[in-house]
Fold:
Amino acid sequence: MTDEGHHLDPTDWDDFSEQMHGLLDACLARMEATRSLPWRPVPDDFADSVALDGAPQALDAVFARMTGPIMAQATGNTHPRFWGWVHGSGLPVSVGAELVAATMNANTGGRWQGATDVERAVLSYLHDVAGMAPEASGILTGGTSQATILALTTARARLFGTDIRRTGLAGLPPVRVYIAEGGHSCVAKALEIMGHGSDSLTRIPPTADQRMDPAALQRAITADRARGITPLAIVGTAGSVGIGAFDDLDALADIARHLSIWLHVDAAFGFWIRLAEAPWRDLARGLHRADSIALDLHKWIGVPYACGACLIADAAAHRAAFTARPDYLASAAEGLAGGDHWFCDYGMDLSRGFAALKAWAAIATHGSAAFSRAITDNCRQAALMGELARTTPGMDLATPVISNVCCIFTPGHDPAALAARLQLDGTAVFSTGTVDGRPCLRAAIVNHRTTGDDIHAAIAALSALLA
Ligand SMILES: *Cc1c(COP(=O)(O)O)cnc(C)c1O
Structure:
């Protein structure tokens, strides 16, 4: 008897099962105790402790290291008082899905398999939330950054023709993309990667209500066209990372349609405000008119990292921008090489995992109503934090709270030092930003575990540091 063909699988499945159950129990215990497990600084000897020398270690030792020191060194965004940057808080049900997905080990780049239908079901749900037509296209991505590249690449192929896939940038006129001043850096990065350079991004100033000024946008486009520059896309922001602002998407869609320019919306977290109660849901009115939308499932609905999506209204344009089928990727009429929808035709990855399952499990289990409550609660909590910041001595509300982001001035105190203090104490995680050129503490609340008490406690702790 030989173990050829099995030597990377367990030899004793009963023992493996016992170890796996222990691992699962440790994970569940951590999830249940999450309120008492804020971010902790990484110990100095941690990097050395995980170095690999190529020698095998016993499974129980590897599992113990994973569920012990490694699991303890997380980002901390599973904690109810984590509001730094824009980090999702994670859903236990999706941990189960990750286990199933890893077991299947599906390569969802193409071929005839059920995983494709699961991803299409998730995309169809996203089209519904956006209000897009059912025949719209889309693909799950690693996040909004990647989705932005896919969206703008599709816009470019539709504008200049798919020959550009062969001929590249040579012979193209200079292009411009227009975005609000508070728009995310991933759009500039997309333009760098696409070869246009970040100088092809024009930032349009806001009106007094923190939305991109449509008149200034029109003027910029008209002036550019007059000097031979071709507008590639208008990028609307649904939920700005700095202050949670939403552009007037209807106004941008009117301009885009009138001037025949692609409208892309960065809706990384703000997409989900479509599920919130009024008045917040109306912030993203007009979202359904976008040619493309980039969004994250790993932020506001808490699907574990990484999970984003690119939605594109024109399915043919989407496919034409990416499809590539050399002989080794030919479809067949029957067998595993069948199936009429291969996701490798819609993005840059050929091999890709089954991230759709954790999104599918999250949506199937919780449904829109539960997400709606969590998202609406977060907006109320940001408003509460804003009210406390306005009325607590020593701090000021930096700018009115629009959605789920609250920015706080701390006159006489460095916000970065205060943020670090609260993080190191395990009290709460704020990050920092600037409003009107002044540094501030910033909370972007996309956390389904946060309660009003957490907001009160964090502001009380901040107040104590300012006293
Ligand atoms: C997080 C974020 C991005 C980038 O998304 P990733 O998923 O991190 O790539 C882009 N835009 C906004 C508004 C964001 O909040």
The pocket of pyridoxal-5'-phosphate is lined by residues 86, 143-145, 184, 186, 239, 241, 266, 268-269, 296, 308 (CB under 6 Å). The chain has 14 helices and eleven strands.
